[in-house]
Amino acid sequence: MPNLVVLGGGESGVGTAILGQKHGYEVFLSDASKIKDAYKQTLLLHNIPFEDGGHTESKILTAETVMKSPGIPDTAPIIKKLHQHKIPVISEIEFTSNHSPLQTVGITGSNGKTTTTMLTHHLLADGGLNVGIGGNIGKSYALQVAEASYSSYVLELSSFQLDGIVKYAPHIAVITNISPDHLDRYEYKYEKYIDAKFRITMNQTEEDYLIYDADDEATANWFRGNTTRARLIPFSIKQKVESGAYLKDDKSIVINIDGGSLIIHTDDISLQGKHNYKNAMAAVIIARILQIEEASIRASLKTFRGAEHRLEKVSIVRGVQYINDSKATNVNSVFYALDSMTTPTVWIVGGVDKGNDYNEIMELVKEKVKAIVCLGVDNKKIIDAFGSVVDRIVEAGSAIDAVDSAQIFAEEGETVLLSPACASFDLFKSYEDRGKQFKEAVRKLQE
């Protein structure tokens, strides 16, 4: 019988299965859905037994350890049975860290974690470190530890991945910010989601670092009732901080770490907008802790390109800038997007609502948005929220319809922004699919 069962046959699951096999585990992988052909071929190549389309409980319930892929909720029947049988259920991050002594940087947060993770990796790799990137981005952490030869890793960590850790402790942890998201996985209790994010620091020691947004309300509230042993390093765009990073006169970021000071002009950062200055602050703090040279940091900040589907400038068509921010699946993300707009904006919004409070962006919508295109099956909540604020609101049932409608409203020198504030699953396979369809629709305008 298997002593390691892997639940989920995607990137995380297949990587864990390969790592487990390498360390001598008898592995069995099970997926309630159909496993993609590419992953099936990988499992067959490694002679790893698997099943899809259902779970064989008799095998699963004999496991010594179960690795649960992050997409599987704790409320799934098989997970409940595993808990009843007191079988440990952990995440890929926990399993991999148990089999790797390598130092990690762990980055979590409701928004900005992908950009911060990519930028951090860019700074460290350009600075000469043999560093991998994984977690919630790219190839699985487990697969890279099994097959690659990196000396350290930068990991993007979701709350779901952090839910499944027991002993994992990053040497450097970052919490970019916290705002309501994925509350359906946390009994619609915001405090449980916040606690999940702060699991990133629960095993850190005095030798480790926790970098955090000093402007973030949820983070500040957590610190009022909780502590961590890690060394705290804040960053802020609103206040000066003695040890950490802050924005000075809206023109430069100042980083003070271990008695050394570094000043970087915002014009020298490839990613613009105050939210991106925060991402840059976190990444530069990490680079300084890991002793990357100042000249290298400056050069790398100029050359970095952002994540796809995150305030991605698609093209300018007849004088109108089209921006793909499909990854913005909550109101907080849209706040940052709208805040960075410098021209009148046609806003494409909508999808599967996750409990959004649109009052949080009402003033920005009044100030920035000239028209709204609703891209979703049920748009009533959006129309009710903004019907008295924005004169022109239309509905669209596809990316092509949305772009066609938006280009009617947008004039030369203005912007069309896809920043949905919602999940994508009513009309699209994923936020990536939504973003790609949007970009294709924009390209068709140029034909």
From TrEMBL:
Its main location: cytoplasm. Keywords: ATP-binding, Cytoplasm, Ligase, Nucleotide-binding. Pathway: Cell wall biogenesis; peptidoglycan biosynthesis. Coiled coil: none annotated. Residues 107-287 form the Mur ligase central domain. InterPro entries: Mur-like_cat_sf (IPR036565), Mur_ligase_C (IPR004101), Mur_ligase_C_dom_sf (IPR036615), Mur_ligase_cen (IPR013221), MurD (IPR005762). GO terms for cellular component: cytoplasm. The keyword Transferase does not apply. It comes from the Eukaryota. Residues 309-422 form the Mur ligase C-terminal domain. It is found in: Cytoplasm. It holds the Pfam family MurD_N. One of its GO terms (biological process) is cell division. GO terms for molecular function: ATP binding; UDP-N-acetylmuramoylalanine-D-glutamate ligase activity. This is UDP-N-acetylmuramoyl-L-alanyl-D-glutamate synthetase. It comes from Orbilia javanica.
